[in-house]
Specification:
Elements lengths: L9 H18 L3 E8 L2 E9 L12 E2 L4 H14 L23 H5 L25 H5 L16 H15 L3 H13 L16 E3 L6 E3 L9 H4 L2 E2 L1 H13 L7 H7 L8 H6 L1 E3 L4 E5 L2 E10 L2 E8 L4 E7 L7 H15 L15 H4 L3 E5 L2 E7 L5 E5 L7 E5 L5 E3 L8 E6 L5 E6 L2 E3 L30
Helix pairs in contact: 1-11, 2-5, 2-6
Length: 467
């Protein structure tokens, strides 16, 4: 019988082990544990530790820091999907009196609400949450650092507000709601706000000596929705599979795609670094691969959850030291190793079961001005428009049921594609958001905006007759 660990080739497993071994050794981490998910299943687990004979396993808890934000975002999207709020609602509509109520819920999720990055001193990650019992203690006297909605500025207090919003609309503590609505349905029984044995201890490693210092473990109180959770590679592997596929008991695939869509205007440095932020998820460019997920850190712990949705591969990396290892880089490498060594096998091509002749009539080559495009009909009933030469805008379109289609991505997302027919029923052109696509470049007799020169196409030695 084949076990999940056997599903990867021996060379792939060794490359994964080598990568985490280098990270633990060079980063001087007391321990490092990792897992890889492919096709929704955990296919590899590895660990390295400084304590002989006591390697952590997939059930050992580590603190995951800001990966907690993704869980909080799922709770907020659930409220939206149930009709209890709109992402465009100002916070004041549901949680008045915070001093940051002009920001919308979407802006809080995307870190564009203009709020401060941290709560007022003392440093919240290393001090008891009891020092900040109220939202006003988290936000301080001047919560805003930037105009609302104008720029991306990562804000931990922003997710405190989202946690308070969940509590207000659900009438229960944030952690209770999380357990009932997300953790229990997904089977994440080793994830929660308090450590439960077996769990790793958090350590600081001296930068100039191979010695350790224990880090304090604090209950973050009001800041919990921004970074409180403990979890395991086993649980986070299951959570990664959910973030790709969805689960209608928790959140559907469409809402998860929305979370993975960039929602914050990137700053110049972010563009250069290939970084963007969605709704509770980070997006990074690694070579030609788009990675989504989240990183996390608290004193004594580092964590990353990395997903390459196109490859259907994800990686979880958990470390119990304050600094020294980049779990984001390690996670990206684990995904790359599997995706490149054992590329995803595509599903067999299958023809469509049936086709509408009126749709089949539209496929083939079209021109927007002199730019050539191809319109293709897929077995799934979607049509795709792609440039045939050079660069150009492309998109897939879903049928509306009335002979028109709606764009799904890119420049044409949400735009309407419709065939315009002549009196005899033949197709004159395609109208896409007022752009006209004809069968020939600037086709004579077609409804080209601005018309077509009656003399038609000509060589350089030919001149139109003078009127």
């Amino acid at each position: 019988m084949t076990t999940p660990q056997d599903e990867l080739l021996p060379g792939t497993r060794r490359a994964l082990l080598h990568r985490i071994a280098v990270a633990q050794s060079e980063g001087r981490a007391p321990s490092l544990v990792a897992a890889v998910v492919r096709d929704g299943r955990t296919v590899w687990h590895g660990a390295r530790t400084s304590v002989a004979g006591h390697a952590p396993d997939e059930n050992t808890q580590y603190r995951i820091g800001s990966i907690t934000k993704t869980f909080t975002a799922v709770l907020v999207l659930r409220l939206r999907d149930e009709g209890l709020l709109d992402l465009g609602d100002p916070l004041d509509k549901h949680l008045p009196g915070t001093g940051a109520g002009q920001a919308t819920i979407a802006e809080l999720l995307a870190h564009t609400a203009g709020l401060a990055a941290e709560s007022p001193a003392p440093w919240w990650e290393r001090t008891p949450g009891s020092l900040r019992p109220e939202l006003a203690d988290v936000l301080g006297e001047e919560p805003l650092r930037h105009p609302v909605g104008r720029r991306f500025h990562y804000s931990n207090p922003g997710y405190t507000l989202l946690g308070a919003l969940v509590e207000k609309l659900r009438g229960a503590p944030w952690e209770d709601v999380l357990r009932r609505e997300v953790l229990e349905p997904l089977g994440l029984h080793r994830t929660g706000g308090r450590p439960q044995a077996p769990h790793a201890g958090g350590w600081a490693v001296h930068p100039w000596a191979d010695v350790l210092l224990p880090e304090p473990v604090e209950d973050l109180g009001r800041m919990a929705p921004a970074g409180q959770l403990w979890s395991t590679t086993g649980d986070l592997a299951r959570f990664a599979a959910f973030l790709v596929r969805g689960d209608d008991r928790v959140l559907g695939a469409a809402s998860l795609r929305e979370m993975r869509t960039p929602a914050a205007p990137p700053q110049e440095a972010d563009v250069v670094a290939g970084y963007a932020y969605g709704l509770g998820l980070e997006l990074r460019r690694s070579g030609e691969r788009l990675l989504v997920g989240h990183s996390g850190s608290l004193p004594g712990f580092l964590a990353s959850l990395t997903i390459a949705a196109a490859d259907d591969v994800a990686a979880v990396v958990l470390v119990n030291c304050t600094s020294g290892v980049s779990p984001v880089a390690v996670g990206a490498d684990l995904v790359r190793i599997v995706a490149e060594a054992e590329p995803r096998i595509p599903e067999p091509w299958r023809p469509a079961r049936d086709v509408d002749p009126a749709v089949l009539e539209l496929v083939g080559q079209w021109y927007w001005g002199t730019n050539a495009f191809g319109l293709r009909l897929g077995a799934d009933g979607l049509v795709s428009l792609e440039p045939l030469t050079g660069s150009g805008r492309r998109s897939r379109f879903r049928p509306n049921g009335d002979g028109t289609w709606r764009g799904l991505e890119g420049y044409y997302a949400g735009e309407s594609l419709r065939p315009v027919r002549r009196a005899d029923g033949s197709v004159d052109h395609l109208d896409l958001g007022s752009f006209v696509f004809t069968r020939q470049p600037y086709e004579e007799g077609a409804s080209v905006p601005g018309g077509v020169d009656p003399e038609g196409w000509r060589g350089i030695g030919q001149r139109p007759e003078s009127p």
